[in-house]
Amino acid sequence: MKYKINFILGIVFLTNVIIAKAQTKLYQLLSPDTKIALNISAGATLTYSVNYNKKQVLLPSKLSVSLGDGKILGVNNKVEKILKRSVEQDIKPQYGMAANYKDVYNEIAIKFKGNYEVIFRVFNNGVAYRFKTALPGRIKVNEEQINYQLTADAEAWIQTTNSFQFSYEEQFFKKKISSLIGKPIASLPFVTESNGIKVAITESDLLDYPGYYLTYAGNNTLKGISPKFILKDTTGGQDNFNKLSLLDADYIAETEGTRDFPWRLMILEQNDKDLLYNNLVYLLASESKIEDTSWIKPGKVSWDWWNANNLTGVDFKSGFNTATYKYFIDFAAENKLEYIMMDEGWSDQFDLLKVNDGSVVTSGTTALSGTLDMPYLFNYAKQKGVGIILWCVWHTLDRQMIEALDQFQKWGVKGVKVDFMNRDDQTVVRFYERLAKEAAKRKMIIDFHAAYKPTGLERTYPNILNFEAVQGLEWNKFSDVDILTQATILPFTRMLAGPMDYTPGGLYNSNLLDYRKSFFRPMTLGTRCNQLAMFTMYYAPFEMLADAPTAYQKEPEILAYLAAMPNTWDETIPLEGKIGDHAVIARRKGSTWHIAGLNNWTGKNVKIKFDFLDAGDYQATIFSDGINANRIGSDYKKTTQKIDKASSLELQMANGGGFAIKLEKIK
């Protein structure tokens, strides 16, 4: 690891100026490239402001933490000492969007009288701060004051909710920040603009603490708001899969008095395109707490639920039965897919020790159609080198965690897909970490669905491979909403937080006029190439192939492309993009590049320059929208040609279209 840290005590450099005036102390911290200036004022209140290229992006904004004993951290501040350091290091993630992340920042830690400090970091593309306390015993946190005073009532890409209990699958809409007066509130990441600079607000290292949302406080100011600690809840919601609050406390957290609070992060970029690749949430998260990570295996998954276990051309009745999952296992093995999923319906949803014998009925799921011989299936999967992932209702797994995971381990389960949390209060955040620890003890991976946005937990517990927190392809089963328009918003918004389980790969492709929702034979909005592009565009270390094995087997070109597709990367380069319009990205695995373009409902041409390539020739395999793709979504063409770094390529994306390119080095 390349590692360089410079520690400087006290008052250092010209970038750290202290002025004694009415007991207020002022500090300035610059980014390593000096483009970002962070200004801190510590006196009666604690505020910070931010400039980018000498343009004000954030006006002085207050920060504090109010405790249950009446103490407020961040008011009447008396600085005891400061510690400033510069860090330049290479972080090699267990898996990621690149083999190496550059972690370069300047930091100032300001220690105040009262046994707390605030740490600020300035990167070349963002600013973050966190509180750190050294208080005795346990404490209650009534409120954390988080404010962002922008330079104007700017437009933002906003995902809203009227409640702290929701699935994090709402759409992003472009609205003024002032639209957040009262309710609804906005979830994170929150992308807006201030003085011409792109600003994305989110958080990292969320442990034993609730997440937060944004509301409008007037005067161009966004204010953070967190769910209260839940004292009493009850089962409810969809099929009783949720836990609904009956009684909230008057505080947001009860926690250890000596701790690090979550990082509050502002990502700053000059262009939309640059939002396509950002790893600050990961870099700010705590390092791995799992010592041996050699068993953790990202991969692709043959999924059952989206296609409703519908197999064609087979000599058995498909559904929840041994023959169906044996077919899924064979399909995965033949195409070198690492996993299959046994989703909702394999068990009694409220007793994970009871395999479904046909007596369990849930709305909208496939009939059992026989019996499930779990020991046989796990033994067969092991022989074929395929892992099986089991779906669980979160509160059932929470209640039965030890005994259920022990049973899963005996069977040979490789991981769990945990669903329907629909919350990010402190209790649920604790559940994530508790499950990550227990699953790691048994060498199991995790995929969280109906989950809150990622906050870097996949670094701390790398057995957590993916998070949903997105209006993904499943919505085509039960909704008429236009999810394709979101496809060109998500790479710039939701993807800033971390891995995203969108579950692409549907082959029944349609335009807006032909589309209809169907639970048992779902369609996708947009073209075939739009679906293919998502496998490169959306970062997913645990990647579902949504359609049925027999659907892919009828499309051998598509199957061969997807089966060989990586889902972790050695390098990522954003090429072009505009939020809500289109996005083009390049990702490398070894010497092979994958390039993808996603489009909205307006057709357009894009020109790709390959100057990022190494010297030498590449064989390009190009999947692009067919001439009739605007009418027939499944129409595509596959072409091949030689490419080198001096080449350029112009492609036309259909309405709701896209493209996918594979570049293989010619030796």
UniProtKB/TrEMBL annotation:
GO molecular function, one term: carbohydrate binding
Residues in Glycosyl-hydrolase 97 N-terminal domain copies: 30-285
Domain of life: Bacteria
Keywords noted in UniProt: Calcium, Glycosidase, Hydrolase
UniProt domain Glycosyl-hydrolase 97 C-terminal oligomerisation: residue ranges: 568-663
Cofactor(s) for this UniProt protein: Ca(2+)
Name of a matching Pfam family: GH97_C
Domain Glycosyl-hydrolase 97 catalytic stretches: 305-470
UniProt subunit comment: Monomer.
Name of protein: Glycoside hydrolase family 97 protein
Lineage of source species: Bacteria, Pseudomonadati, Bacteroidota, Sphingobacteriia, Sphingobacteriales
